[in-house]
Amino acid sequence: MIGEDDLIARHFAPIAGPGGLGLLDDAALLSPLPGHDLVITKDALVAGVHFFADDPPGAIARKALRVNLSDLAAKGAEPLGFLLGLGLPPGTDEAWIAAFAKGLGEDAKERACPLLGGDTVRSPGGLTLSITAIGTCEAGTMTRRGTGRAGHLLAVTGTIGDAALGLRLRLEPEAEWAKALSPKARAFLLDRYLLPRPRNALAASIHAHASAAMDVSDGLLGDAVKLAASARRGLAPRIALQGVPLSEAAREAVAIEPSLMRAALTGGDDYEILIAAEPGEVDALLAGCAASGCPAHVIGTLEESAAPEFIDADGKGVRFGALKFEHDWKS
Amino acid sequence: MIGEDDLIARHFAPIAGPGGLGLLDDAALLSPLPGHDLVITKDALVAGVHFFADDPPGAIARKALRVNLSDLAAKGAEPLGFLLGLGLPPGTDEAWIAAFAKGLGEDAKERACPLLGGDTVRSPGGLTLSITAIGTCEAGTMTRRGTGRAGHLLAVTGTIGDAALGLRLRLEPEAEWAKALSPKARAFLLDRYLLPRPRNALAASIHAHASAAMDVSDGLLGDAVKLAASARRGLAPRIALQGVPLSEAAREAVAIEPSLMRAALTGGDDYEILIAAEPGEVDALLAGCAASGCPAHVIGTLEESAAPEFIDADGKGVRFGALKFEHDWKS
Question: Helix or strand or coil: residue A156?
Fold first, then answer.
């Protein structure tokens, strides 16, 4: 039986940064750069809601960190570090914790976002994680969500829908489309659900060229409506659906089962960045993203309009019942 | 049925500070004071482990915030704000959430520690909370845990053991001592378990006069050993047990059942501050604490010693089986 102090000393102190003070104090210590703001985000994940309890522990840890890093990327901020709240179910063995900490430490190192502190508690109801990530940007320059304007173009990084389709594969592995999918496409989609790819490499381009941005976590179409509405009422997105970037694997799935397009556009867990930009900034934005290893694609505009418009390949408007995925605690 | 966005807009946005950006963005924004460090702490609480699921929702919220504020107080830091990770069990009704947010908002206002952001998720396994609190102090001056030295005096704020005895009253209300206790003492102890009193009013005195400090959350005696050991091996506390400040209610309980003294000294949940101070600083420390409305009392010293010493009223050493309360996730 290992106590909390030993657990921290053995598995978490080795992945802590200097601000973590060896995880031996009541608090972490950060010395902000002069002239810089702090950008702080917190995402909680619960077994059975945000991941499967039997996912590999290292992948659970990476996902928890990465969904927070995605928020920092969307704000054009550079990561400084994170704190971890870890609720462990009774009977968690030390090998599980070691694997969890290993995955977490590798991601933290690779993304220059060290562990600064946290809390480990017993959680009889199942595994829960809560990460607070802290980033920084020059004072007054954080990329906001509600600063888009009519006429700005909308772009999105990477590809959309992969994680939502990966989740569908986990939930209904025996569906016809799932069985018809190539092994390569299946593996790609499953991996994208398990491990988001936060776009921190694009933070500088977003910071330099975006008029507004947010990370896409609850479904592209609903998040686009949210980005517009957070600027003001009467602003709405107009999106050409054929312009939404899909991976080869997602295209294969949609070709087998066209109704999956809806899941891809509204399903959530993308952890890509939705970016608004003035028309004169778009070329530089797209070039910056491509140069940083993750292309972005223009998918529409922000318009003076009471309602969003989603346009299909024939130029017709498409209606969606639910625009986004919302975790609801009553269900 | 209320969705996450509406819930945040109705109940949490009204208690957010300016840095929370209306809780409408991906992240919170903090502009640190020039020449100041940030002090960051995170404590998680789980229903059935750290509080009772049927505690009043406002009290659960206050406790979650207060245990974090206690860490900031121990570091001599002034609160700037906090983020809340809230895992709600299925079926949580809006009245519960409203009461939770009301208690949280009142505490946040009273203690000048506004809500900055967070995340609300569904938690099928029961209510979980994770708060990250952020404080500040002049650069390089955070009161550390591991900076006590041999010959420094140990003091503790407030009174010790009240919350531990309050928890015992919750767990064994029909015990002989519980039934013999006066209604006033019972109410006092129960309240101290339900609602910690973090000593943020003492932060300036601690900052000015302590050589080291930590908050007492896992039991006074074990935490004193921890404070000493975090400086280095071979440093240990020597504590005169009769000097440990007890409330009138705790003295009444111990008079009825002397064995409760052990629970008071090792039981945890005190959320008082254990302070080490150079002998020349002690008078000013005690005067500052008293002037700020919460007296501190000298209870011992830090000594060059391989083992702690706990001395009773007759000058004899007392041995304790377990020095502290540790939440263990294997039990």
Answer: strand
